[in-house]
């Protein structure tokens, strides 16, 4: 879905994802980093441009490029399955280049997204999910303060056609103040990016 929403937190800017982000995003990915995604690893600028185009045109999905203070593309993330009627959405389709793993990038991006979801859109529930084999993403959701809800068996189809399980987490509106405090604390003591 095309949108003009730009979000900020700490030193990050989440800008609407555009086709011109594709070359920088391609430089960040490889098979190991892309594992757990449901599409094949993009190998060319055209394949990443196709992925970006799909992200931008999916209904109820707000896709972002995650940009550092110098404009460097650090990765991508999205709101998706946005349902204002029942006040819920999901955050996902997230990946960052390895140079920004373990630093402030993910907590800052989640702070920007969750702040918008709860404080601007008035969401009651924000869900996050990952392939159940993706221990890194699951650990990040736990550090975020999201509540583990369980595993949906046989829920995902990987790029190679195999089935996988999905681990679900969520944050409810009444939990958001505590989650926000935890993210702000982490950002206050986060190591410098890169």
Automatic annotation (TrEMBL):
<protein>
    <submittedName>
        <fullName>GNAT family N-acetyltransferase</fullName>
    </submittedName>
</protein>
<dbReference type="Pfam" id="PF13302">
    <property type="entry name" value="Acetyltransf_3"/>
</dbReference>
<dbReference type="InterPro" id="IPR016181">
    <property type="entry name" value="Acyl_CoA_acyltransferase"/>
</dbReference>
<feature type="domain" description="N-acetyltransferase">
    <location>
        <begin position="12"/>
        <end position="174"/>
    </location>
</feature>
<dbReference type="GO" id="GO:0016747">
    <property type="term" value="F:acyltransferase activity, transferring groups other than amino-acyl groups"/>
</dbReference>
<dbReference type="InterPro" id="IPR000182">
    <property type="entry name" value="GNAT_dom"/>
</dbReference>
């Amino acid at each position: 879905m095309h949108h003009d929403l730009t979000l900020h937190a700490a030193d990050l800017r989440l800008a609407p994802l555009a086709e011109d982000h594709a070359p920088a995003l391609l430089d960040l990915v490889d098979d190991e980093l892309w594992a757990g995604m449901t599409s094949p690893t993009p190998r060319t600028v055209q394949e990443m441009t196709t992925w970006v185009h799909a992200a931008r045109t999916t209904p109820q999905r707000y896709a972002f490029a995650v940009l550092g203070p110098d404009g460097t593309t650090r990765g991508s993330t999205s709101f998706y399955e946005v349902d204002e009627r029942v006040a819920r959405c999901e955050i996902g389709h997230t990946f960052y280049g390895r140079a920004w793993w373990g630093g402030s990038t993910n907590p800052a991006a989640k702070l920007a997204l969750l702040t918008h979801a709860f404080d601007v859109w008035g969401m009651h529930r924000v869900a996050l999910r990952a392939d159940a084999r993706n221990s890194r993403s699951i650990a990040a959701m736990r550090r975020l303060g999201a509540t583990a809800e369980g595993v949906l068996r046989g829920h995902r189809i990987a790029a190679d056609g195999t089935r996988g399980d999905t681990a679900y987490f969520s944050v409810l509106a009444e939990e958001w103040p505590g989650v926000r405090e935890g993210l702000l604390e982490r950002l206050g003591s986060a190591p410098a990016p890169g």
